[in-house]
Design a protein that fits this description.
Number of strands: 3
Order of helices and strands: EHHHHEEHHHHHHH
Largest sheet: 3 strands, mixed
Helix content: over 70%
Distance between the termini: 139 Å
Number of helices: 11
Structural class: mainly alpha
Length: 365
């Protein structure tokens, strides 16, 4: 049985409408945007960057799509109904997928920034790296995260049994770990997790600064202009992730020091975290020129094709040619009329040479 244990549903109608609208926008934008990213990178080579970076972008798109379906969609249901209505199994799926998402997202972004830094520092060594190698690296990360998560998940589910609750502060399902471990262990677990997140933030910021410096040095070394396209994409992805993770981190630190935060502030913290799911699509639109060209040529082309009139018959197809011929003949007629008028004017103004020329005999006289 799923028990709604913590918090109360949002009672303010305006606030509730805002959160529902925001989550619906996040869901639709994520599904549409990540689908375009996957189709564009797999079929049309829409993101023209290093193969390894493209592979990481594809895995991020898959991860964000899963998060939208398993995390955002249940949140919309609870916001509308005020309670969890999807059953115990899906609540377990929601709880475990959320933890996998929390671990995989920073892992992939760390891979992106670190590998981009290595690619910038060693362009000749990494020139032969293929898309297949990038998928192998990302698959290795997936396996590592699952190996770390599955034993913990099984232990928690077996020990806690069917006791699982939905938290109306964070809008996530959690197993009732109070039956598994003591409160002190839970506190230490939160403290260790918070410390790891802080270390991760420091690593990402340090890698980003090093990437800026090394990209500039590499441009000077090889006497080429600095190519900001790939560097900007990585830096923007890191910045968006840091922006989305800071509010929940602040809330976790406040819990450790037993500082009370208002319910509205808690909701805002986790809604900001959800915004990070849909932003990667906009990052690629702003920083990758080839992706913008793909959207213009493919997506806008479909809309323009939909507005074209229906196919016409042979006579209708020849109509533009006939009109051009009519216009050309009309122009020729006008030119001939103008030429005739000019000739008439010349005939009128020209004097008779017999009357104008003087007789040489008369002149002699």
């Amino acid at each position: 049985m799923v028990v709604t244990d913590e918090g109360t549903p949002i009672s303010n109608t305006v606030e509730l409408a805002i959160w529902i609208t925001l989550n619906v926008i996040i869901l639709l934008t994520t599904l549409l945007g990540d689908s375009l990213v996957l189709v564009g990178t797999i079929k049309y080579n829409a993101i023209k960057q290093h193969n390894v970076i493209v592979a990481i972008i594809q895995h991020l798109a898959v991860l964000d799509t899963c998060a939208a379906l398993l995390w955002i969609l249940p949140t919309i249901q609870v916001l509308i109904t005020g309670r969890w209505e999807l059953g115990e199994f899906l609540c377990h799926v929601n709880a475990q997928s959320y933890l996998i998402f929390v671990m995989m997202t920073p892992g992939l972004i760390c891979l992106m920034s670190t590998l981009k830094l290595y690619i910038v520092c060693n362009p000749l060594k990494t020139a032969t790296w293929s898309l297949k190698l990038g998928h192998k690296i990302c698959t290795g990360l997936w396996i590592l995260v699952l190996c770390l998560h599955i034993p913990r998940a099984l232990y928690t589910i077996l020990k806690a049994g069917n006791t699982i609750f939905f938290d109306l502060f964070t809008y996530n399902c959690y197993p009732n770990i109070d039956k598994v471990v003591s409160k002190a262990v839970v506190t230490w677990y939160i403290a260790i997790g918070t410390s790891l997140v802080i270390i991760l933030i420091v690593v990402l910021m340090g890698t980003s600064l090093a990437l800026l410096v090394m990209a500039k040095r590499a441009a000077l070394r090889y006497r080429q202009p600095l190519r900001w396209a790939g560097v900007t994409t990585v830096l923007a992805t890191v910045a968006v992730y840091l922006f989305s993770i800071l509010p929940p981190l602040a809330r976790a630190i406040a819990n450790l020091v037993e500082y009370e935060i208002s319910i509205a502030a808690v909701h805002a913290c986790y809604q900001i975290m959800r915004l990070g799911i849909m932003t990667n699509f906009f990052v690629y639109c702003l920083t990758v020129k080839s992706f913008r060209e793909f959207l213009k040529s493919r997506i806008l082309g479909l809309f323009l094709m939909g507005r074209q009139p229906e196919q016409s018959g042979p006579r209708d197809k020849l109509a533009p040619l006939l009109e051009e011929q009519d216009d050309a003949s009309a122009e020729d007629a006008d030119e001939s009329d103008v030429a005739t008028e000019d000739a008439d004017a010349i005939d009128v103004t020209t004097e008779d040479p017999t009357t104008t020329e003087s007789d040489p005999n008369t002149t002699a006289d």
